[in-house]
Specification:
single chain; alpha/beta; Rossmann fold; 2 domains; 12 helices; 53% helix; globular
Length: 244
């Protein structure tokens, strides 16, 4: 860890734990972010990748508009069958190398900038081995009941949640490997990013970090979790500054 380059936060946690909330809270401080899921979706705009998926699973995996039918793809790779694991592995082999290349380009640009911190939103951080590039890992924690309730809003059953998480490292392992734990259980998964960004901007030059304290209070429905993010950022700065 050095003081003259952007330090990288990574956000991990269970499905429905509120990782997007944590990422939005960190972005509100002005930190650049790489959203691995969003970038993976953009890969499906690549005609070469579409051809690979079509060759593997047939024309119905690509919609008439020329985009991936994500629902159909999920039915294939997350199906409750013995064959589904092999299909998911194939999808990963197809998408992870170009996704890693995009991440590397982004990280090189961030490290060459004057950014203080940057954020990697990568739910499968440990599974794909990207933690080597990360300075601090934040584990977002929420109870199973809370997560089941949240994913129900996506139309998922508890069984679907379990089936998808079975392809990931156990949550206890991720939690143990994290530097910080953000509890985001009872507060709704809502964040007023615009208000928080304005608070940080208004207090940007305040030596007492008033802007960051205002940001911590900018989302009244998630004030506690937002305040935790502010404390995590302060602690990361303290650890950075304590280094030789």
């Amino acid at each position: 860890m050095t003081k003259n380059r952007a330090l990288l936060f990574a956000v991990v946690g269970g499905i429905g734990s509120g990782k997007s909330f944590a990422t939005a809270a960190l972005r509100a401080f002005g930190f650049p972010c790489f959203d691995a899921d969003a970038e993976a979706r953009r890969l499906f705009d690549d005609p070469a990748i579409l051809d690979v998926l079509r060759d593997r699973w047939g024309a119905d995996v690509v919609s008439p508009s020329g985009t991936v039918d994500r629902r159909r793809l999920a039915e294939i790779v997350f199906a409750p069958t013995a064959e589904a694991r092999a299909e998911l592995d194939f999808l990963n082999r197809t998408t992870r190398p170009p996704l890693l290349a995009r991440f590397r380009r982004w990280l090189d640009a961030v490290r060459a900038s004057d950014a203080e911190f940057a954020v990697l939103d990568a739910p499968l951080l440990f599974e794909v081995g990207w933690e080597r590039d990360v300075d601090f890992v934040i584990f977002v924690e929420a109870s199973r009941a809370t997560r089941v309730r949240r994913v129900a809003e996506r139309g998922w059953s508890p069984e679907e949640l379990d089936r998808r998480e079975a392809n990931q490292l156990p949550l206890a392992v991720k939690r143990k490997r994290a530097d910080f734990v953000l509890v985001n259980d009872d507060a709704p998964n809502v964040f007023n990013a615009e208000n928080a960004e304005n608070a940080v901007k208004n207090g940007k030059n305040d030596k007492n970090n008033k802007g960051e304290r205002d940001a911590a209070n900018a989302a009244p429905f998630s004030a506690d979790a937002t305040a935790q993010i502010a404390r995590i950022v302060d602690e990361a700065r303290r650890r950075r500054d304590a280094r030789p």
